[in-house]
Design brief:
51% of the residues lie in helices and 17% in strands. By secondary structure, it is of the alpha+beta class. Strands 2-3-1-4 form a 4-stranded antiparallel beta sheet. Helix 1 runs antiparallel to helix 2.
């Protein structure tokens, strides 16, 4: 919200500076008129872009968030290696939640774990390590890891 307000303030200020009558300007040459016209076109072109960018979060509606509480499908638990902070976990969780076939995904940096519910017809469990690798981390099935450590 702070950047949205700041963007609008800057935009209003730009319009004010561009369209206010300058009483000190005594030389209204053709070059200054062309420059002023160019500035107006640029500002008029930037304005819709600013409004679209401000409205973008509302336009997309968080489509991947609609599936975030759907704990149906095949459950899989993973150990995730390579995360260095909570931001890593949040970024990977968002990326995986946006994947078609991922019904639910919760990544915990503190525990180094990930819980997934997937639709096996759209996203086989075997594809999950590849998705995690594409985010820069390594996923190991929890059961596989416990067998390796237990033996």
């Amino acid at each position: 919200p702070v950047f949205a307000v700041l963007s609008l303030v800057v935009l209003v200020f730009a319009y004010f500076k561009l369209f206010k009558k300058d009483r000190e300007a005594c030389c209204n040459t053709e070059d200054s008129k062309k420059s002023l016209r160019k500035q107006k076109y640029i500002l008029l072109g930037i304005t819709p872009i600013v409004f679209v960018l401000l409205a973008f979060p509302y336009l997309i509606g968080g489509s991947h968030l609609n599936n975030s509480n759907d704990q149906t499908g095949i459950k899989s638990e993973w150990l995730v290696e390579g995360m260095t902070c909570g931001g890593c976990a949040a970024g990977m969780e968002g990326s995986l939640a946006a994947t078609d076939g991922m019904n639910f995904c919760k990544v915990s940096y503190e525990n180094g774990t990930m819980l997934c519910y997937t639709d096996d017809n759209k996203l086989p469990i075997d594809n999950i390590p590849g998705l995690v690798t594409s985010n820069g981390y390594k996923a190991i099935p929890k059961t596989e890891k416990s067998i390796i450590n237990g033996g």
